[in-house]
Amino acid sequence: MTGKAIKVEDVASKIFPELEEQKQVEALVRLIRLLAAAQNPVDGSPLLTARFHFFLCSLEGAYLSLASTKDQPVTQKILLDRTSVQQGHAFFEIAICRECGQHYLVGKVSKSRLSEAIRDPGDIDFGANFFRPVDISLVEQNDEDEFNRNNLHQLCLACGAISRHPTRPVCNHTTIIFVEQQEASKKHPDQISKCAACGYQAADPVREIVHGSDGPNAVIATALVQNLPLEKKKVLAFADSRQQAAFFAWYLDDSYQGLLSRVLILHALRKLDSAGSVTFNELASVLSNRYEEQRLFRETTGDIERTNKIWKQIYSEFLAEETNQSLEGVGLIRYVMKWPSWFKVESFLNDLPWHLSDSEKFTLLETLLNFVRLDKAVNLNLPPLVNLNWKDLGLQSPQMKVRIGEPGSQHFVRSWDGLRGRRARWMAKIFEHAGMEKSAARIKAGEALRAVWQSFSETDNKARSSHEAIFHEITDAKRLNPDWWRIQLLTNEDTIYRCLVCGRLQHVAVKNICNRSNCHGQLVAIRMSELESNHYRNLYIELQPEILRVEEHTAQLAKVTAREYQRDFRNNKIQVLSCSTTFELGVDLGDLDTIFLRNVPPESFNYAQRVGRAGRRVGNIGFAVTYCRRNAHDLYHFDHPDRMISGKVSPPVIAKNNPKITIRHLTAAALSFFLRAFPNRFKNVEAFFADLQNPSAVKDFEEYLQKDQGKILSSLRAIIKDDEQSRLLGLEDGTWIQHLISAALKGAEERVATDFKIIKQFQDESKQSNQFRSAEWAQKRANTIAKEDVLSFLSRAVVIPKYGFPVDVVELDTHSVSNNTGSETVILQRDLSIAIAEFAPTSKLVANKFEWESYALKKVAEKEWARWHYAKCAKHNQFDRWQTGQNPSFTKCCRGMTTRLYVVPQFGFLTKNKRPDKPRRKTERIFSTRPYFVGFKNTSQQTIKYGAIELTKTSPGEMVVLCEGYKGQGFYVCPKCGAGFREMTRAEIENGHEDFLGRKCRCRPERFLSLGHDFVTDVLKIIFWKAHNSDIEPQWFAFTLAYAILEGAAKVLEVPSNELNVTVNAYDMQASFPSIILYDNVPGGAGLVARLEFKEMLRACIEAAAERVNGYCGCASETTCYGCLRNYRNQFAHAYMQRGAVYSYLLELLQELE
């Protein structure tokens, strides 16, 4: 055995050269299973321990070039690598409508060019422009219902120049196409609200061609579980991010339940196949039986609750929004109308120019009613005792109504005969097919629709009761009665129709005209057996209906919950456990065979630890699937998987001089003496602080330390061996007691006392106002605070060490009580530099399948947030800060310099006192952060010069990380209660707001506040005296170079790149671009960047930086991609970074360093 990773095909061909290629692999798998099952008779060890490693890769996007030549007016070329101009042809990012497949060109119009979209939500220009390519001749022939002439632009295919039509083009090229700009979503500037081609409206209806991670990951996880033996159906899914792991647990569970619902509906219809068309009631009865047979209901679920779930699934499918994924959309079922016996087809359908056969007349009417279903104007008819409302269905669209005439100002109303509606557009196409002109056809369509409406009304008047009408009347409008609809199961012999233009499947046809209102395609009949393969159709047919329980296991969970999920996973009660790094090391997980890595781990040892959790039992073969995401690290290891699988694991480098970490260890040691002396204080938080209204833990702890200094001091000195550390922490001059009590313990005491007093005050107010439910909650909340375990509290409050802890931690307080769904199961903590964005007011995050929204900055009695004024210039990278009462030291460089105020939310954040919601989609990262360099702590620094590179010797420097809110507009924050808002109207400001407990607060919020975190860490300043010869603006050249240096440094230091960070400083005199600030991304420093002071390490760093931007990723030299430099932290610079110029510059630097 080689002890190295080898491709399966290579091993199989060497061992079984006489077999065919496919049979070689099959033979190898059988051989490995045999060897793995064989045991040493003495000690029982397996003869062979083996694991299979499988790597998959995601797409970063698709880019379209519409080149034009003399011989061929327009030729299409699509690339999957980011580029802008290639061989004289511009490339544009593509987005596709999720419903109809219409493509759009995506970018941002800047300086009359369609450039890359701005994806940083903190940027004032955040957003994207979507352009639909159009045929100008069709635009001129049609009215404004289909095309908006005011939004027409002409786009150059050679250089990307764009201008409004019919103004003169801004370039001299002749390769022009016409595009229609779409209106951006009001809430999401990087999205549009609907597709202009088909009218589809949903959350983000038109998306760039980016696979992301959650969708593909759900497909992979489902396939893994489905193909595992019954006794081994469990998968451990790893992600580096807590939020990724938490959201995936909900997403996989939710998406699988949708799949399961459709699979069971299909199974139920098969059982009812002999019945032909099936009513909803008939389906509900058999579907319930299928759930019972598969034991998919919990035994605690009651009959009414079970019936509710069955009807929810039936209506969810009947009203499916993403129809291309529904059972109907993939061609497995169809919905048909059962016409009342008293219904008669009106004679006007026999007149010219209809030319309809008898079957087409019914098909036409059924199609019109089906449009009502697609409009979501459907009544929910339910059996007795079933309680189901529209919101329960989880649809994006509201429940609508239809009526004759325009809806006017009425909400949730569709016009039956509106000329812009889908019914009129489709009917007009039928008349045009019969030879009418477009304008006349549209008018005739309106008349025909009104006649059909009248016919339906007369039919309903003949019904024996309103329950038997085709429409239910709702005030002055109507909704469809679903009782007349039937479900039919389609077989391979059934005929279906496919549009030659949009490709959608349709179950009926009138004159072979596509019923998508804006599609001009023709339908062709096709047998079901002749349909091309479809992922969702295959899934619905092949998926086995079985339980798939998915849970999260991250540091966000409370210990009791985490322990419960771990136990259930070991016992095969959980099939997929979505975890962060919590399971890299720890308890044996039993006969686990399958590991799913949802991203490439930072280092080889992380990979070895994660993959090593599988295949530990004799005879078990481990299987690891790794999904490589859209970033440089993952894509690199997709190309070189052996380096991750068999990579060298270097010993860790530990910096022992971080005072923030050291003080926690000293505090823990000192507290152990105190708690042994007073064991009754160890009972719970209330006992520890003696009195939560007037706590005395800090005072009592100080008095104890003063009495027994000698014994405790000798113990602390045994921990701290470094003389400088000992001096800094006061072990030599007797001030160590003040260091211990003035650190985190004092702040923790102040915070818990404030929390307790606020809750008790709220309890008293609630009792006085007879709000007994609120008072009961407050009593339970106070009891939860008082009875918390002491060690849990101290570690959560960052008083004592904790596994994997960052050094400046704050909490998003969810007001945990024992009966508040979800809150008692989570503990939400982040490093402050991350929390100012992830926990900022209005931010949402997922934990334990609930969605938590931050509402306020926490206040502490008699304490205030640290406040700083600051000035910054985006163009010259100048940054300065000062406190109130001080004079700023900066000189204003240009008009672009702005001054603002930031606060440091060092006490943490609060959710509002309400039950959390279940997620409906992935929470958006609304806010981003940027680091800024304030300056070195010492006034003088030593410098080191290597040719054109000058280093300022590593020394402590002050860094500030800022979150400036959405599009840089800051936050509204109440100075009294801490409530925070992204935006507020004048009326909202004047009328007051609620605090986190729901009480009215009249205090006026402060405007345009930023959130900040300042810390001291090891900083290495790098000045490049060599000029660059590119036309990139100096600051963006500096940022591109900075991120290349960062990635190079991470590689040579053998640490994840997020353990370092970089920013660009203000201009240095005589340098052609700003200096680079590289620093340890941890308060107090970790000794990492200091290692780059040596010439050999610096050269290796620059070599690695050059390798990162050498173009192996495939993107164009005048841009960057996730395969080289892009990541979430530098998205503010994505549109400006160019790797090619930096690559050339780094090669020149390397020549000078020789």
List key phrases describing it.
single chain, 1154 residues, alpha+beta, Rossmann fold, 11-stranded mixed sheet, 20% strand
How much of the sequence lies in strands comes to 15-25%
- Overall number of strands: 45
How many discrete domains? 7
Average pLDDT rating? 88
Helix percent band: 25-40%
Low-confidence stretches: none
The Rg value, from CA coordinates, equals 33 Å
Protein structure class: alpha+beta
Distance between the termini: 42 Å
Largest sheet: 11 strands, mixed
Helix run count: 28
Label the overall shape: globular
Write the layout of secondary structure elements.
Layout: H1 8-15, H2 21-37, E1 51-57, E2 63-67, E3 75-79, E4 85-86, E5 89-90, E6 92-97, E7 103-110, E8 113-115, E9 129-134, H3 136-141, E10 152-156, E11 162-164, E12 176-181, E13 206-208, H4 214-227, E14 235-238, H5 242-271, H6 280-293, H7 303-318, E15 333-337, H8 358-374, E16 401-403, E17 413-415, H9 422-433, H10 438-461, E18 471-474, E19 477-480, E20 485-489, E21 495-499, E22 505-506, E23 523-527, H11 535-542, E24 550-553, H12 559-570, E25 576-579, E26 594-597, H13 604-611, E27 622-628, H14 632-639, H15 641-645, H16 659-677, H17 685-689, H18 697-707, H19 709-719, H20 723-728, H21 736-768, H22 772-786, H23 790-796, E28 809-813, E29 828-831, H24 832-838, E30 844-847, E31 850-857, E32 866-873, E33 878-882, E34 898-904, E35 909-911, E36 930-936, E37 943-946, E38 949-963, E39 971-973, E40 980-981, H25 986-991, E41 993-994, E42 1000-1001, E43 1006-1024, H26 1034-1053, E44 1060-1064, E45 1076-1080, H27 1095-1108, H28 1139-1153
Parallel strand pairs: 1-27, 14-25, 14-26, 16-17, 24-25, 26-27, 28-35, 34-43
Antiparallel strand pairs: 2-3, 2-6, 4-5, 6-7, 6-13, 7-8, 7-9, 9-12, 10-11, 10-12, 15-20, 18-19, 21-22, 21-23, 28-29, 30-31, 31-35, 32-33, 32-34, 36-38, 37-38, 38-43, 39-40, 39-43, 41-42, 43-45, 44-45
